[in-house]
């Protein structure tokens, strides 16, 4: 009976690779407790590409850094559950967790140049964990580094392996970062605004590369970005964060067609269109609340065009609003098209 | 002009001025012949010595002779060192050359300074790193206290306190002297205190700086073990300020050794200098000061050299700016 149930649920959707439940992150600061992430839950399926969008300070990076175990505690405090391979990542011993990093989950960062150690050669950095974990010789590690540099299409890998990060362009640094992340064949790659610091053509090359690597390895990708165009093009499912909470989660096509949250609608309407069809940009008025001072009720209500009286009193929970999607808005079903 | 060549010439000029200063002081404090032979010497002996030393010639000529003697390693002879009695009436035709005596004392000074440096440096790096890894923890506070105390403590007092504790009360270490490793411990500890405090403070702040940089998070994210994150990734980038302060402390260490040697009767150049001062042994004092000064200047030069190797940008800046 139980087995049947399980196979049934598995038939409906593949078992999630990563299951994040009620993740909360707070920081103790001299100005009081800052709630950076206030209870988010989401899942990631094998091979899926998940996009996370939201304004600056909405808790996108902190949430994923918490999953990676990169939040310094104290002053930070992380609670909730992050299930990977039937184990809670947050409570496992530091040793196991470090084993997970790089091996199962890897992360790349916005500014690749400063995310690379300036005084180690790129070859050393790319093969560093490979050499440590696989206990291989320097020669093997070097071969691995060259292979990885070839994979991320860094030209003349053999000669550039001994170069330092400052001898590479920003785009090439990001390729080095990606090679570093791929060294142990992780199942999940978290990319925190991997292209924000790059110019447009290089952005495109990096995204093409990531998509290609994903196809080859069947790796799941979590992509944090401000670039809604990028989300529309590359992502399967998108999550929208506002003030440390998830406000909407939906398949990307559905999200852009009919958003279920006024904030998502505002984001999409403020997107510059390449075809120039809309003519006018609709920036969302006001600013997000400071992490220390959350408004009562819906956190978005001071800026919301659709707010009703209830919004200032009662906080909307994230609830299902149609197939595979959820939104946290009292009026989710009534949001007009963009 | 290349940076190092410029520094070399500067050092040379500095040394030249120091030597000249030593000469001038030697002539100002009184009649060198009288100082060297003592008040009991007869007038004939004094005249004889003045003749030998060329003290009857004009001062600028004496100065030139002094310099040319130095270039041949001739710092003069001592009539005090190794003589149990003052050479009174009959002038001894041959004194003891001072330079070999000064040089023979160098190994003891080097042993003391070297031990202190190695001890202070390695402990400071470990303590500074630990403090930076756990800011505001007990270990951080401890490192802070150690560095504050060791920088403000007067070496002389620290030496005496250590003697009282370990030699007088506990009786486990000798109060002074030379010979076994036990003799080395207290003077080395006394001398190490200051560099330990200074270096650990610099290690701490440089490491705090590095550990907050993005490449550290990235290294952790890819699964690098924490010891490697700290002692390979961060420490490598923090090495320039650490080497700089260590170099600064090295010349302090050499001069500090002079004092510590007298506290512990450690037979190095410092003790020789103090003894020679007491004996009014002018040539020995002159030679001692010149050798120590040359050493300090040489050490500074060596540190500069190490610094340019570690930080290739210095060389390039100067090449670009002054070529
Ligand atoms: N160490 C910290 N101490 C205190 N507050 C912090 C700390 N780190 C992050 N925060 C706060 O957590 C909140 C979320 O930050 P986060 O970096 O996740 O935003 P983000 O969504 O990634 O923004 P961006 O798009 O600019 O990268 C911010 O309000 C930030 O001020
Ligand atoms: S709950 Fe109310 S205030 Fe919040 S987004 Fe929906 S309509 Fe706007
Ligand atoms: Mg961010």
Automatic annotation (TrEMBL), chain A:
Keyword terms: ATP-binding, Cell membrane, Membrane, Nucleotide-binding, Transport
* Keyword ATP-binding carried by entry: yes
User: Care to name a GO molecular-function term for this sequence?
Assistant: ATP binding
Check the record and name the CDD domains matching this protein: ABC_NikE_OppD_transporters
Which InterPro entries does this UniProt record tie to the protein?
A: AAA+_ATPase, ABC_Ni/Peptide_Import, ABC_transporter-like_ATP-bd, ABC_transporter-like_CS, Oligopep_ABC_C, P-loop_NTPase
Family membership noted in the UniProt record: Belongs to the ABC transporter superfamily.
Main site of residence? Answer: membrane
Q: How does it sit in the membrane?
A: Peripheral membrane protein
Q: Where in the cell is it found?
A: Cell inner membrane
Transport recorded as keyword: yes
Output this protein's name.
Answer: Oligopeptide transport system ATP-binding protein
Specify the ABC transporter domain's residue ranges.
20-268
Q: Where are the transmembrane segments?
A: none
Task: Read off the Pfam families from this record.
Answer: ABC_tran, oligo_HPY
Any single GO CC term annotated in Swiss-Prot or TrEMBL for this entry = plasma membrane
Q: Report the superkingdom from the record.
A: Bacteria
UniProt GO BP: peptide transport; transmembrane transport
Q: Which organism is it from?
A: Primorskyibacter sedentarius
Gene3D superfamilies assigned to the protein according to its UniProt record, in alphabetical order? P-loop containing nucleotide triphosphate hydrolases (3.40.50.300)
From TrEMBL, chain B:
Q: Indicate where this protein resides in the cell.
A: Cell membrane
Question: What cellular-component terms does GO give this entry?
Answer: plasma membrane
Sorted alphabetically, the keyword list is:
Cell membrane, Membrane, Transmembrane, Transmembrane helix, Transport
Q: Give this protein's Gene Ontology molecular function annotations.
A: dipeptide transmembrane transporter activity
Q: How does it sit in the membrane?
A: Multi-pass membrane protein
The segment(s) forming the ABC transmembrane type-1 domain are 106-303
Which PROSITE patterns does this UniProt record tie to the protein?
ABC_TM1 (PS50928)
Note the Gene3D superfamilies from the entry: MetI-like (1.10.3720.10)
Q: Where are the transmembrane segments?
A: 12-30, 110-133, 145-168, 253-274, 286-310
- Which protein family is it in? Belongs to the binding-protein-dependent transport system permease family.
Q: What is this protein called?
A: Peptide/nickel transport system permease protein
Organism source for this protein?
Primorskyibacter sedentarius
């Amino acid at each position: 009976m139980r087995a049947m149930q399980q196979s049934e649920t598995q038939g409906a959707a593949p078992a999630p690779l990563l299951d994040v439940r009620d993740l909360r992150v707070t920081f103790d600061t001299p100005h009081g407790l800052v709630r950076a992430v206030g209870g988010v839950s989401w899942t990631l399926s094998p091979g899926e590409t998940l996009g996370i969008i939201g304004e600056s300070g909405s808790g996108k990076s902190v949430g994923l850094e918490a999953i990676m175990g990169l939040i310094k505690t104290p002053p930070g405090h992380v609670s909730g559950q992050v299930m990977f391979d039937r184990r809670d990542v947050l409570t496992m011993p530091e040793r196991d967790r470090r084993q997970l990093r790089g091996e199962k989950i890897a992360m790349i960062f916005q500014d690749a140049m400063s995310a690379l150690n300036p005084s180690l050669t790129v070859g050393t950095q790319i093969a560093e964990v490979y050499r440590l974990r696989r206990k291989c010789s320097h020669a093997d590690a070097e071969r691995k580094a060259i292979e990885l540099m070839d994979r991320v299409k860094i030209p003349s890998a053999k000669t550039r392996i001994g170069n330092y990060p400052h001898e590479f362009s920003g785009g090439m640094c990001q390729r080095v970062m990606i090679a570093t992340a791929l060294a142990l064949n992780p199942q999940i790659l978290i990319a925190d605004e991997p292209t924000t610091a790059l110019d447009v053509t290089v952005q495109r090359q990096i995204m093409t590369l990531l998509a290609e690597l994903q196809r080859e390895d069947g790796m799941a990708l979590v992509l944090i970005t401000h670039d809604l165009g990028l989300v529309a093009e590359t992502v399967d499912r998108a999550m929208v964060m506002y003030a440390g909470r998830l406000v909407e989660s939906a398949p990307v096509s559905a999200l852009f067609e009919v958003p279920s949250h006024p904030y998502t609608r505002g984001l999409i309407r403020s997107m510059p269109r390449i075809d120039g069809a809309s003519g006018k940009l609709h920036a969302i008025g006001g600013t997000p609340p400071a992490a220390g001072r959350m408004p009562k009720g819906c956190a978005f209500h001071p800026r919301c065009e659709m707010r009703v009286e209830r919004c200032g009193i009662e906080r909307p929970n994230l609830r299902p609003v149609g197939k595979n999607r959820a939104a946290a808005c009292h009026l989710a079903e009534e949001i007009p098209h963009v | 002009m290349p940076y190092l060549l410029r520094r070399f010439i500067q050092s040379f000029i500095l040394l030249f001025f120091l030597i000249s200063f030593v000469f001038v002081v030697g002539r100002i404090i009184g009649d060198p012949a009288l100082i060297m032979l003592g008040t009991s010497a007869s007038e004939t002996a004094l005249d004889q010595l003045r003749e030998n030393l060329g003290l009857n010639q004009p001062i600028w000529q004496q100065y030139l002779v002094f310099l040319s003697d130095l270039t041949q390693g001739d710092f003069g002879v001592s009539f005090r060192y190794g003589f149990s009695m003052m050479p009174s009436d009959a002038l001894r035709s041959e004194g003891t050359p001072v330079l070999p005596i000064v040089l023979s004392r160098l190994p003891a000074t080097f042993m003391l300074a070297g031990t202190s440096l190695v001890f202070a440096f390695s402990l400071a790096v470990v303590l500074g790193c630990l403090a930076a890894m756990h800011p505001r923890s007990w270990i951080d506070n401890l490192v802070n206290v150690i560095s504050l105390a060791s920088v403000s403590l007067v070496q002389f007092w620290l030496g005496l306190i250590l003697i009282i504790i370990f030699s007088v009360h506990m009786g486990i270490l000798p109060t002074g002297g030379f010979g076994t490793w036990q003799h080395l411990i207290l003077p080395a500890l006394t001398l190490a205190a200051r560099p330990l405090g200074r270096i650990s403070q610099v290690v701490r702040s440089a490491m705090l700086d590095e550990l907050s940089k993005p490449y550290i998070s990235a290294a952790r994210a890819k699964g690098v073990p924490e010891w490697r994150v700290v002692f390979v990734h961060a420490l490598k980038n923090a090495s320039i300020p650490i080497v700089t302060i260590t170099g600064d402390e090295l010349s302090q260490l050499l001069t500090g050794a002079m004092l510590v040697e007298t506290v512990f009767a450690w037979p190095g150049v410092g003790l020789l200098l103090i003894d020679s001062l007491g004996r009014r042994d002018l040539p020995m004092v002159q030679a001692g000061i010149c050798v120590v000064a040359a050493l300090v200047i040489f050490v500074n030069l060596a540190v500069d050299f190490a610094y340019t190797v570690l930080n290739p940008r210095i060389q390039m800046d100067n090449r670009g700016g002054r070529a």
